[in-house]
Records
---
Amino acid sequence: MTALGLRSSGRLALSPRRRRRSTVPPESPDQITSLAFWYDAEVSPTIEDSGVIERWDDLSGNGNHAGQTVSSERPIKATDGEGRDVIRFDGIDDTFAVASPPDLAAGMTLFIVFVVRTRSDFSGIVSAAAATGVDHEAFFSLQNASLASDQFQWLGKSAGSDPLLIERDDSATAGLAILTAAAGSALFEDLDGQGSDTDDGSFATPDQIVLAGHYDDGTYGYSAIDVYELGLYTRALTAGERGALQDYLRNKYGL
């Protein structure tokens, strides 16, 4: 069983023996250097308008907020079955875009805690893209694989000679992904292990980072997801740093 399988109720399922949280997490995201943005549904301030979220504020100190300028395409703030705050995307047209996508030439580590309420073929969870073309051609997409496959996939640099593709089974109840890339190698970690692949080399600076959808000269491929926490570093974290980050997320959400 892997960490990225999700049940349709949209609730983080917590086993009784794991419900206790550490009062002092071993590491919080802003205690690790090179944090470009960090959003937390419980802690981040939001700007709301008519019941929907216009902006989700960045906790990294960089002012790199995520938002949506089109009111009809904004998510809502909701609570899961455990009473935790989530940012809820409808899977129809809701997305957020990061205000200023950072330079990823030195590498990257992205983390996200989420629940997929309804699976669909190749719908985007987080994607980075150039100004034109499909997100994963020059950059990447973390996405659902085919509905029948019961997998998630990290797909990147698909227009190159050595594309990135790592797939992880979707069979558990809570989504945690830590994606790391640098110098032509990539690692996809979840609660039950990891997958790895090689690729054409480092990313550059994306023109778009989209949450809950794909990008191809505009957004599409929307995902019905609840997002608890999301962050991005502009380097590949060390194994020790990734372990501390995973411990923080496990303790916080009882995973």
---
Amino acid sequence: MARAARAVAVAAPSAPGPVLLQDLLGYNLRRAQVALSRDFQRSVGEGKIRPVIFSILVLAEATPGVAQVDLARQLGLDKASVVALIDRLEAAGLLERRRSTLDRRRQGLFLTTGGADLLQGLKQEVAQHERRFRERFSAAEAAQLITLLQRLYDQG
């Protein structure tokens, strides 16, 4: 019994007053991310496509020939992680690497026909996913939220 009482005393907060999770930025961001992630998994790509895969496909479509290092920078990921993801997408026949004609050390990434076809369907599913969350805000609130979130990770 004395042992249990001592454990409680050690676990008691030393700062005055409890920290309310609802007031913590990180807690609220994580809860929002979990809600978005769960809905994405339920509604996009039959649960087989992660947001990072969708992002890579979108960036490869928008910038044909993009380098892996540039993808890593745009997504805020380390190069090794991006290489592993690109390897999987290439093995699945969704992306292909092509050596640059200007710089033979550099390989560009291009969507395959299968990747482009898959992406078109995914874009529709992601648009529906986004609508479910954006409808909770006015257009001005949604734009402000995006701006505020970007401020958290913007390096510039």
